[in-house]
């Protein structure tokens, strides 16, 4: 497996409302699902406020470290929408009223008989040299500069934009995931699972506890870009779960003291 | 208003499952709500994978910058639970089987007649010198070292732990928020709202667009720790919305060409 061709990504979600709890983010999970399907490794997510310094610093850290950066939020027409300016500052270029975006927006508002105000013109702002990300929902485009993809925070618009963007990217080999439901808690399986992980280093085995209010169970995920490796590790995990179940059964039988065993 | 006493915080959510999309995080929004109620400013959130280097780096960046750091995830008994080790490494101290945690867990498993396996003992690991965060759900404690509060990722356990932790912290003056529902999109209000924000610099006025599938409306939030400042700015915003509504009404009347006006 050629791992050098695997692309990495980060997301930067921008908005005071995400940090105050007013808005519960829906874009991170959506992007994460999409990256998994596209075979791109999402490595990090950050959420920052609508503050220029915070955006610039986070963006520069992420864009130098990962192949792709995706941002959400802060590209609307109001005073707290400062993402375009912050991205321009991070790249050290001017933030302009993009002529093509101005035309698109002017035409759309003219059709609807709505004044193309100064505030609405803010939605055409982007760093000089950016390419557009189309917005089929409400016209105002997102933009791409370098490896940074700047999109709206409103989930319907974000989803439309990211779907377009993912279509532009060279996708990698998809990570194959096998899920094994395990009725036992992590304490029951931890030692054996660690041994299985050690024996199958080319896979990543994750253990995800679930608490139903009374007891813990676990979902076990075996992940790799190598199908055969996933199959072998998943078989070992399934055998472990079966063995544990059989053992628990023997303990119950013994404790109940059935006639045959007594 | 004495702003020097206002405490800042960051959250570090740890887990491959958050980045693959398998798990949609519920702890960030919960923490954000709690911080707002406690009057603590949540300034940044990061999500990283179960990778030691990524955890150490993010933790050191956040703990040096903010008053409090809260982490979720990676303190269970399986091999992919490496948060305790990573936190110890970030602080440059040993990661030990905490004697008090070992006692708590041993007693709990003894009561339930369950073997206290090596995997289960992993849940007693924490950086030397940590204090416990009680876990009323499943016993295994979280821990506090320096300004870092390390909690479980399972939402029920995270919520119990963070509620306890918030009770320990000196809380600040709460941010007062006034919400104004605005039936107009951001393009209608952007210029006027920017002027209001400029006239009320001691408040933070946020504009949150909502798209119902056909048209945009907006929720406007005025926030400050100063009640009078919030009231004055909110009045200005309400007056703006009322004026816009009246203007739209006049336009409709004119366009309909009523007898009186014709």
TrEMBL record, chains A, B:
InterPro entries: CinA, FLAD1_M, MoaB/Mog-like_dom_sf, MoaB/Mog_dom. Pfam families: FLAD1_M, MoCF_biosynth. Residues 10-172 form the MoaB/Mog domain. PANTHER family: NICOTINAMIDE-NUCLEOTIDE AMIDOHYDROLASE PNCC, NMN AMIDOHYDROLASE-LIKE PROTEIN YFAY. This is Competence/damage-inducible protein A. It comes from Peteryoungia desertarenae.
């Amino acid at each position: 497996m050629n791992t050098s061709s695997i692309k990495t990504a980060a997301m930067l979600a921008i908005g005071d409302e995400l940090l105050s709890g007013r808005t519960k983010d829906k874009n991170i999970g959506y992007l994460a699902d999409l990256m998994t399907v596209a075979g791109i490794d999402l490595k990090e997510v950050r959420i920052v406020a609508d503050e220029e310094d915070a955006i610039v610093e986070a963006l520069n850290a992420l864009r130098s470290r990962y192949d792709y950066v995706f941002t959400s939020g802060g590209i609307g027409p109001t005073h707290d929408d400062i993402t375009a300016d912050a991205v321009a500052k991070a790249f050290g270029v001017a933030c302009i009223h993009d002529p093509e975006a101005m035309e698109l927006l002017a035409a759309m508002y003219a059709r609807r008989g709505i004044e193309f105000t100064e505030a609405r013109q803010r939605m055409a702002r982007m760093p000089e040299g950016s390419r557009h990300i189309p917005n089929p929902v409400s016209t105002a485009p997102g933009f791409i500069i370098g490896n940074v993809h700047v999109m709206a925070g409103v989930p319907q618009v974000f989803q439309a934009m990211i779907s377009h963007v993912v279509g532009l990217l060279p996708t990698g080999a998809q990570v194959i995931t096998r899920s094994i439901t395990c009725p036992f808690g992590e304490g029951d399986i931890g030692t054996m699972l660690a041994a299985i992980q050690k024996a199958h280093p080319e896979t990543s085995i994750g253990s995800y506890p679930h608490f139903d209010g009374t007891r813990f169970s676990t979902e076990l995920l075996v992940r790799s870009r190598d199908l055969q490796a996933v199959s072998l590790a998943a078989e070992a995990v399934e055998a472990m779960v079966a063995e544990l179940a059989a053992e628990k059964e023997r303990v119950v039988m013994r404790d109940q003291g059935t006639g045959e065993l007594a």
